[in-house]
Amino acid sequence: MNIFLTHSYFYQLDPKQWINKTPYPPLATITALAHLEQNGYHPNFYDPALDANTTICEAEMTLAQPELVIIYEDGFNYLTKMCLTNMRYACFELIKKAKSLGAKVIVSSSDATDHWEMYHEYGADIIIHGEGEHTLLESIQAVEQQKDLFLVAGISLLREGKAQKNAPRTNERDLDIFPQANWNVIDIEAYREIWKQGKFPFTLNISTTRGCPFKCNWCAKPIYGNRYNSRSPERVVEELAHLNEKYGVQHFWITDDIFGLKPGWVTAFNQLIQEQNLKINYKIQSRADLLMQNKTIDELAASGLEEVWVGAESGSQKILDAMDKGITLQQIDTSTKLLQKHGVRVAYFLQFGYLGETKEDIALTLKMVEENNPDDIGISVSYPLPGTKFYEKVKSQLGSKENWEDSDDLDLMFEGSFSPDYYRALQRFVHHKFRLKQGWQRLSGKRKYISWRYTMLIPYNWMKAQMLKSKLR
């Protein structure tokens, strides 16, 4: 078949991410491409991630004159899990173009999983629900051989004008059966040039696991689910070595929801890194309760770990318990100190606006940041995603707007304790106060790796923090 494979995450349609200058290639998309190639299919591929809009992608699609168009999102990128409406409408434009060319359309994404009936209304013939590689291959084979698509597990489709969902598919447990992502189709230098315009070293993204077994009640898992399967350390190190040797990449973002949870995995990973004398640095996401052992942190640091993003969320134990986080404030504090002792930077995800949060709870979060002294923070407000317990609690309060337009939207879409404007001011206040502290620490020599830029911005951050503080009283 003549197949055209693409995705619809356009960094320029998310101003916050475009300003950050840290775009990542569509990892899940090029992994699915490699899986198709391994099974005898060779789609035309186009990566529109750095484009301003859908125009070039539509032109490439027209040039290919495909029988089948696949819009396959990067399920390893947390930004796609947020189901931003700017990207949804871009996908609709691509679907419209594909249908005008007479092609069938397959879509795989978090948003299409959550709003599958809407995507069918806009013309998608097949929506993939959950992990996509096996389902995509079987769907293509069924279309090509004109078999009954209702025999394909893990999809929804139209029958007699009505969208219907087939039986679910079991996720693959042996991730090593999937080939390494096809990095050859990515214009690595184009991504590198964007990173050069920012303040961070060029970084590529890889994945070592799929899914998360923990049950924070606001966290959605539309693609990989509430499970945890790992690639072998051998396959992961093989990919890292390949990217390091071929493209000269030394910095990596390991996209796993939880890194290194499988017993013995980190030990084996570190041994392979040492045996191959692979000099890399990487950052991960993890949980405070999993980072409490010196041996584990020793091995992580030895293998090149430079930064951990921890889901601290709140400085109020009441709020953490309400979220079903399963961690304590003491674990957050202890793990932070242990990691920093080993030379690993610690960054906190913070979340404001959860149900029942008071100004006292907010003050406790500010106190936690002040006392624990993390190296970086990322702030959001509680965001109801379909399929979560949190969503079920607030869905009756949601109006016409159920998704953010972009990742800097920060609209509190349910009835929180305070107004959306309050939380926007709070987010900016905490950031300015944090950067102000970092500037003073850099000036005093306590944080040498922090850019001198923060010392230059001390007056600005102080002024902005004072202005915003008045709005929070």
Descriptive notes:
It is built from 19 helices and 15 strands. A hairpin with a 2-residue loop joins strand 6 (155-159) and strand 7. Helix 10 (233-247) packs parallel to helix 11 and helix 17 packs antiparallel against helix 19. Helices cover 42% and strands 15% of the residues. It is an alpha/beta fold. It has a 7-stranded mixed sheet with strand order 2-1-3-4-5-6-7, with helices on both faces. It has a 6-stranded parallel sheet with strand order 8-11-12-13-14-15. The protein has 2 domains: 3-165, Response regulator (Rossmann fold), CATH 3.40.50; 201-418, Alpha-Beta Barrel (TIM Barrel). The longest helix has 25 residues, at 420-444. The model has no long low-confidence stretch (mean pLDDT 94).
Provide tags for this entry.
single chain; 473 residues; alpha/beta; Rossmann fold; TIM Barrel; 2 domains; seven-stranded mixed sheet; six-stranded parallel sheet; 19 helices; 15 strands; 42% helix
